[in-house]
């Protein structure tokens, strides 16, 4: 019985092997479907500049399934078109417009045009003639004009991203018909109007990002039934009103809640303390007032907390977080006196911004558990005394140190500047001594309004970076006597 089974298995393998070989032998001859080739070549002819040669392999008469950016999964039919530049690489761009002939690619299920930056023109209407389309990622290009009113007819879509273009006008109400969507990303455009209520129909959403537009009105109270939403980003708009109560329904899963840079007001709701999975909370640059809820002590997994530029008052709750990575409480009405213990003990912190937080410690007495990962430290506008010598001596990656408007009192030439440092603002303190040569390597410097003296080293900084000291001289200040 068993041997019979194995001989069948062997036969099956032989057959498969033969088939694979046949396919291999005929591969030379196999070509992608002529419609797909024609559609892609028409796209190429609409591209006016391709400096990095992204479309170099797109040659007539060769198998288009082997071209850069092309995937064929249905034999000879193109199923995905993926042209992506690296976000940082300015040579990887495409200029030109998107040919409507791409509608010939009837088996496409995914269109990815990422970071091409100079690709322009209106919303590409060929997308409406592709029956199998489920993924659209058209990100960081220069497409403009309205999002078509009938966008809801792309009913199979599971991901729809127009992030980082120049689309304008309102978000069409028909978006409510895209009920299969798991990702809706329209951030970084010029969209106006309100957030459509119909978004509440998109119950499979995991990520909703509308940040960086000009959306107005309140945040609609539509979040009661998004069982899988983990990312909600409405930052950098013109939204007003309170945080709606239905957001509480997102508590079990939400990891990123970004509402910064709007005109939201009222108290920060107590229920935010129930968001046990929250990794990032950004409520910065709004008009929130009153206390930060005590319930925040239950946000044990939070890594990034940004509450800067609001009207929040003392006392700040004692957080139970194991390690915060970035914290910004600047420009509220806090009087923290000390840098909070849960910040000092964080083993992973890299960005600390506590400007105008009513801190009056002696900096030499601050003993953070970890300093090596710091990128940015902003302690401006406090009453901090002493010297940053010990702190700066223990950083390896620091890019910016900002401590203007304090009572720091030390000799500037004793400071060891980390090699990575680019910005240093120590203006309006009680610092004495000379300006060391090492500052010449910085990108920004401000040591104005201290008690510095002596000849300035040769630098590119303007006079206002040095003004208001006791007896500094030499360019850009008047020559030494
Ligand atoms: C940018 O892209 C071009 C072409 O793909 C490549 O040759 C170059 O090395 C890239 N530059 C960087 C900094 O990645
Ligand atoms: C949501 O996703 C599930 C599976 O992940 C699927 O069965 C269901 O049909 C989807 N619902 C909607 C409204 O698309
Ligand atoms: C933290 O959560 C626990 C359990 O849900 C609750 O009993 C406690 O009151 C919460 N703490 C605060 C300060 O809200
Ligand atoms: C500065 O750092 C060096 C190297 O980490 C260390 O040897 C030295 O003791 C430090 N100086 C002070 C005053 O902390
Ligand atoms: C330096 O700081 C002073 C006072 O804070 C400000 O007036 C001046 O413009 C600043 N200069 C530079 C170059 O940043």
From TrEMBL:
| Signal peptide, first to last residue | 1-29
- Domain Leucine-rich repeat-containing N-terminal plant-type, by residue range, is 33-72
**SMART domains, from UniProt?**
LRR_TYP
Enumerate the SUPFAM superfamilies for this protein.
Answer: RNI-like (SSF52047)
Residue ranges annotated as coiled coil are none
GO terms of biological process kind? defense response; response to other organism
- Annotated compartments: Cell envelope
Q: Would the keyword Transmembrane turn up in this protein's UniProt record? A: yes
Q: State where it is primarily located.
A: other
Q: Which InterPro entries match?
A: Leu-rich_rpt (IPR001611), Leu-rich_rpt_typical-subtyp (IPR003591), LRR_dom_sf (IPR032675), LRR_N_plant-typ (IPR013210), PGIP (IPR051848)
UniProtKB keywords: Leucine-rich repeat, Membrane, Repeat, Signal, Transmembrane, Transmembrane helix
Xref: Pfam families: LRR_1 (PF00560), LRR_8 (PF13855), LRRNT_2 (PF08263)
Family from the record: Belongs to the polygalacturonase-inhibiting protein family.
Q: What is this protein called?
A: Leucine-rich repeat-containing N-terminal plant-type domain-containing protein
Organism per entry: Coffea arabica
């Amino acid at each position: 019985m068993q041997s019979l089974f194995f001989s069948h298995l062997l036969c099956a393998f032989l057959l498969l092997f033969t088939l694979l070989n046949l396919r291999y032998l005929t591969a030379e001859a196999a070509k992608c479907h002529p419609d797909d080739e024609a559609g892609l070549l028409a796209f190429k002819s609409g591209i006016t500049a391709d400096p990095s040669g992204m479309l170099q392999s797109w040659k007539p008469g060769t198998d288009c399934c082997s071209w850069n950016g092309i995937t064929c999964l249905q034999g000879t039919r193109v199923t995905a078109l993926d042209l992506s530049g690296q976000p940082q690489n300015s040579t990887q761009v495409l200029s030109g417009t998107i040919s409507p002939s791409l509608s010939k690619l009837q088996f496409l299920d995914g269109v990815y045009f990422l970071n091409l930056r100079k690709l322009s023109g209106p919303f590409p209407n060929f997308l409406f003639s592709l029956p199998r389309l489920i993924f659209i990622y058209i990100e960081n290009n220069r497409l403009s004009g309205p999002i078509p009113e009938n966008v809801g007819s792309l009913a199979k879509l599971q991901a729809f991203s127009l992030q980082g273009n120049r689309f304008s006008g309102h978000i069409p109400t028909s978006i409510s018909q895209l009920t299969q969507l798991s990702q809706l990303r329209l951030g970084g455009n010029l969209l106006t109007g309100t957030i459509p209520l119909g978004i509440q129909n998109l119950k499979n959403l995991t990520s909703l990002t509308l940040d960086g537009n000009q959306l107005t009105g309140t945040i609609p109270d539509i979040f009661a039934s998004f069982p899988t939403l983990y990312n909600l980003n409405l930052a950098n708009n013109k939204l007003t009103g309170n945080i709606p109560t239905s957001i509480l329904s997102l508590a079990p899963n939400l990891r990123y809640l970004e509402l910064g840079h709007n005109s939201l007001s009222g108290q920060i709701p107590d229920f935010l303390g129930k968001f046990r999975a929250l990794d990032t909370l950004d409520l910065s640059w709004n008009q929130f007032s009153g206390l930060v809820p005590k319930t925040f002590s239950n946000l044990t997994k939070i890594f990034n907390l940004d509450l800067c530029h609001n009207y929040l008052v003392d006392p700040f709750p004692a957080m139970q977080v194991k390690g915060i990575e970035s914290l910004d409480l600047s420009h509220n009405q806090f009087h923290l006196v000390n840098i909070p213990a849960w910040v000092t003990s964080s083993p992973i912190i890299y960005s600390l911004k506590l400007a105008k937080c009513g801190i009056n410690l002696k900096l030499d007495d601050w003993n953070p558990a970890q300093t090596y990962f710091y990128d940015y430290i902003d302690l401006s506008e406090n009453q901090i005394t002493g010297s940053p010598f010990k702190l700066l001596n223990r950083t390896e990656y620091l890019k910016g140190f900002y401590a203007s408007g304090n009572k720091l009192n030390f000799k500037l030439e004793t400071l060891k500047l980390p090699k990575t440092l680019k910005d240093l603002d120590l203006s309006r303190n009680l610092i004495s001594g000379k300006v060391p040569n090492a500052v010449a390597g910085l990108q920004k410097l401000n040591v104005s309004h201290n008690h510095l003296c002596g000849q300035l080293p040769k630098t590119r900084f303007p006079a206002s970076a040095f003004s208001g000291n006791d007896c500094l001289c030499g360019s850009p200040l008047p020559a030494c006597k």
